Amino acid sequence: MAALEALKEALMAGNANKVREEVQKALEAGIEPGTIINDGLIAAMSVIGVKFKNNEVYVPEVLVAARAMHAGMDVVKPLLAGGELGNKGTFVIGTVKTDLHDIGKNLVAMMMEGVGFKVVDLGIDVPVEKFVQAVEEHKPQIVGISALLTSTMMQMKKTVDGLAAYRDQIKIMVGGAPVTQKFADEIGADGYAPDAASAAELAVKLVSS
Length: 209
Ligand code: B1M
What we know:
The structure is a single chain. With 209 residues, this protein is α/β, with parallel strands linked by helices. The chain is built from 9 helices and 5 strands. The protein folds into 2 domains: 2-79, Methionine synthase domain (Methyltransferase, Methionine Synthase (B12-binding Domains), Chain A, domain 1), CATH 1.10.1240; 89-208, Cobalamin-binding domain (Rossmann fold, 3-Layer(aba) Sandwich), CATH 3.40.50. Helices cover 56% and strands 11% of the residues. A 5-stranded parallel β-sheet has the order 2-1-3-4-5, sandwiched between helices. CO-5-methoxybenzimidazolylcobamide is lined by residues 49, 52, 59, 62, 98-105, 107-108, 144-146, 148-151, 173-178, 193, 195-196, 199.
């Protein structure tokens, strides 16, 4: 959408102030918050993701773009609560024990908020017991588990196993660079998504099935 081009440019340049301004302008122009998120913020962040994969941009650029995306989300988020995207329930997310990577996990968390979930972010290096405690406390519809290292993938299995007693109440989604659909099936997860945008689509499907 042409009206969102300036917003996308600002996000890709990592200019948080400009992103805030452009989101505000888009709202004033009558563009729906959901469209601003999907066709503006997420679309631009996806471009950064592809560029990152192709080594055209590096970690610092990904970080500043993610920060700019946060800034834009902060402006639209209040308009989403109970709005047209509705409340889909609670999504608990964390990066597994001994894994300190959180950029992708944070993007997934943001997308989940964007499609109407209340997100409880447990952070990084999350032990199985903390996931279990969060399920007891927050009664989520979905638990999302992220891992970025081959060596921490087995923590993902341990976490799925540790949540066995709750499987009639929750769906479990997994993701992260080394994770595949095959691995997700092997460890008994309900869903796998390769990126944040498809993770949000899958989560919506899981709660409506
Ligand atoms: Co690390 N690191 N790192 N690192 N790091 C990788 C992952 C690595 C591939 C780099 C490499 O060697 N080429 C490699 C892993 C190799 C492997 O295991 N196969 C690696 C390594 C080895 C390490 C250390 C061991 C290095 C060292 O100390 N010797 C160390 C480990 C620390 C630890 O965790 N215990 C380490 C440390 C770090 C930093 C701290 C410096 C930093 C993390 C900063 C941070 O996260 N706050 C870092 C970074 C930045 C990377 C790379 C460069 C970038 C990761 C990233 O943020 N990608 C990475 C190399 C690479 O990926 N090319 C690398 C961008 C992000 C948007 O993508 O996280 O994949 P991603 O998330 C995507 C999808 O995977 C998906 O959606 C996201 C958005 O589309 N997704 C989900 C993620 N979670 C999901 C959950 C879902 C669904 C989808 O459902 C719940």
